[in-house]
Amino acid sequence: MSEPLPGSDVVAATAVAHVNIALIKYWGKAEENLILPRTSSLSLTLDDLYTTTTVAFTAPGGTGASKDTVMLDGAALSGSPLNRIHDFLDLVRGRAAQAGSPVGFARVETFNTVPTAAGLASSASGFAALAGAASAAAGLDLSPRELSRLARRGSGSASRSIFGGLAVWHAGHDDESSFAEPVPGDLDLAIIVLVIDAGPKAVSSREAMRRTVATSPDYNAWVERSADDLREALSAIAAGNIARLGAVSESNAWGMHAAMRSAMPPVNYLTANSITAVDAVREIREAGAPAWATMDAGPNVKVLTSATAADEVEASLRGRLTGVIPGLRTIVARSGPGLEVRSVAGAIAPMTR
Ligand code: DP6
Questions:
Q1: For residue 174, which of 36, 33, 27, 26 has the smallest C-alpha distance?
Q2: Given Cys at both, which of 12, 70, 160, 206 links 180, Cβ 3.0 to 4.6 Å?
Q3: Atom of ligand 1 nearest to the CA of 127
Q4: Distance from C-alpha of 274 to C-alpha of 290, rounded to nearest angstrom
Q5: Looking at the chain, which residues constitute the CATH 3.30.230.10 domain(s)?
Q6: CA distances from 172 to 145, 149, 155, 313 (A)
Q7: Going by CATH, does the domain composed of 189-334 fall within 3.30.390.10?
Q8: Is pLDDT of 172 > 90?
Q9: Residue 50 beta carbon below 6 angstroms from any ligand 1 atom
Q10: Bridge partner residues of 71 (DSSP)
Q11: What residues have CB less than 8 Å from 67, skipping those under 6 apart?
Q12: Could you give the CA distance from residue 202 to residue 200 in angstroms, rounded to a whole number?
């Protein structure tokens, strides 16, 4: 998947990974460094929201770069977002060195079709794409499961974006046993994203989960019911029953938000407009539409529906919410593909999305 450029010390690869939205949530770590979660989770990978990332490594001790550089949507990253990517690249460098083909610093260029840090899971697609591009550029030939474990080290939810469609991330108990894999099934699902506010969040999900685990009296109860919720969700998928899947997903999300709201100090990502949107989802559901809400670490509301009903559900939500939620934007996304390592480039050239 990667090859050195003739006459150059640069090896590069490009990968595309899609956003996933959790239906049964990951919220809280059992181990921070390895990113081992307290619960297993389930998600749907989406088609139209993705990250494209190119990684070029210099040879160790090669000329040119003296540190990792990362361009996100054309702007250079610095500070802790850069450090987080640097630490992740260190994992890849460690493995390349172990495999006998060490690599040096990296130039990373990444483009999102999602508003970064707006609760739209750009870290999931971001670290999945980075895992794919960096491992290929470093000459590592990883299996999908190994890629899922590697992506997990960048951001837990990224473990699921290695796969298309529905994916379950098994919590596991160590690095080897904590990975995602696809869930077979015939449900043709879609997610409508109601973009209520695309601005960056005030509290990072990493910090918010830490606080929830450490202080919320409701957290352990949510962890316990989560195992039942996942069993119910998988059984609903196997039975092709979207109503059961939607009901348990919505309830699991509320449980997660309830636990973070009783943390000390409380974490609240939902705004009055989020609640208005969830109410509208309930109203159209009571009127017969297949629609269930789920919310993550931000004010936006995602609506689970069927691929066939998606356009109609979106139109009726827009009808109810336009003028009520100022500036509301909607995105209709259907089930999307898994990680793709697309091309090998000699140098980072301008990329098209
Ligand atoms: C609410 O995967 O972003 O979206 O592992 O700390 O990077 P870190 O967290 P992250 O958390 C995602 C939380 C969530 C639920 C989910 O995607 O399962």
A1: 36
A2: 160
A3: 7
A4: 19
A5: 3-184
A6: 13, 11, 16, 37
A7: no
A8: yes
A9: no
A10: 76, 109
A11: 86, 105
A12: 7
Hey, which residues does 314 pair with through a beta bridge?
A: none
- Give per-residue pLDDT as tens, 124-159: 999 999 999 999 999 999 999 999 999 999 999 999
Query: Can you give the pTM of this predicted structure?
Result: 0.93
Tokens at 351, concatenated: 């990329």
pLDDT digits (tens, 9 = 90+) for 78-96: 999 999 999 999 999 999 9
Bridge partners (DSSP) of residue 111 are 52
* CB of 193 sitting under 6 A from ligand 1: no
Q: Looking at the chain, which residues constitute the CATH 3.30.70.890 domain(s)?
A: 189-334
Indicate if the pLDDT at residue 1 is higher than 70. no
Residues 28, 211: Cα–Cα separation, whole Å: 9
CA of 41 to the centre of ligand 1 (A): 10
CA distance linking residue 106 with residue 14, whole number of Å: 13
Backbone angles phi, psi at 194, to 5 degrees: -95, 105
Cβ of 197 less than 6 Å from ligand 1: no
Kind and range of the H or E element at 283?
helix 272-286
Rounded (to 5) percent helix, strand, coil in the chain: 35, 25, 35
Average pLDDT over residues 155-182: 98
Which residues lie below 8 Å from residue 199, measured CB to CB, with a gap of 6+? 118
For a mutational test of ligand 1's pocket, the pick from 157, 260, 269, i.e. the residue with the most ligand atoms closer than 8 A to its C-beta, is: 157
H or E stretch covering 28: none
pLDDT mean across residues, the chain: 92
Ligand 1 nearest atom to the CA of residue 119, by list position: 4
Tokens of residue 122, six digits: 């750009």
User: Residue 188 pLDDT > 60, yes or no?
Assistant: yes
The reply to whether ligand 1 has any atom less than 6 angstroms from the CB of 22 is yes
CB-ligand 1 contact for 155 (6 Å cutoff): yes
Strand 106-112 vs strand 69-72: parallel, antiparallel, or unpaired?
parallel
Ligand 1 near 297 CB (within 6 A): yes
Q: What is the DSSP letter of 31?
A: E
Beta bridge partner(s), residue 52? 16, 111
Instruction: For residue 5, give the DSSP letter.
Output: P
